[in-house]
């Protein structure tokens, strides 16, 4: 569905903010938007996946397929995509889950 004209995009924030995460961890996705109260549309790999009254969901490695998520709060626009990834490695180099623009600093984190 199209967003209302002039609607601000929703904002999708993962917690934790770093990817990849270990398989036993859960990621909480929170959708914020300036639209009216109402359901939140959740998209996985550009397909409508879930419509919920809640503005946050839990995602884990055991959830079905897909790794790119977006959301739309009622009356707001579609969020930018967030890509989740999981790693079985004992040592991972993590990057922010949020999209970066050319010229942005790229923080890195090593985690065991």
From TrEMBL:
Gene Ontology terms describing biological process: cell surface receptor signaling pathway; immune response
UniProt GO cellular component terms: external side of plasma membrane
InterPro entries assigned to the protein according to its UniProt record, in alphabetical order: Ig-like_dom_sf (IPR036179), Ig-like_fold (IPR013783), Ig_Fc_receptor (IPR050488)
Keyword Nuclease: no
SUPFAM superfamilies: Immunoglobulin (SSF48726)
Record-level Gene Ontology MF annotations: transmembrane signaling receptor activity
Alphabetized UniProt keyword annotations: Disulfide bond, Signal
Name by which UniProt lists this protein: FCRLB protein
Organism classification: Eukaryota, Metazoa, Chordata, Craniata, Vertebrata
């Amino acid at each position: 569905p199209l967003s209302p004209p002039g609607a601000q995009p929703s904002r999708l924030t993962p917690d934790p903010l770093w990817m990849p995460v270990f398989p036993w961890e859960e990621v909480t996705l929170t959708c914020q938007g300036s639209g009216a109260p109402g359901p939140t549309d959740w998209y996985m790999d550009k397909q409508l996946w879930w419509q919920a009254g809640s503005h946050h969901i839990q995602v884990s490695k055991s959830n079905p397929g897909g790794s790119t998520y977006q959301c739309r709060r009622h009356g707001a626009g579609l969020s930018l995509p967030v890509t989740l990834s999981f790693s079985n490695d004992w040592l991972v180099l993590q990057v922010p889950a949020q999209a970066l623009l050319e010229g942005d600093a790229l923080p890195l984190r090593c985690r065991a």
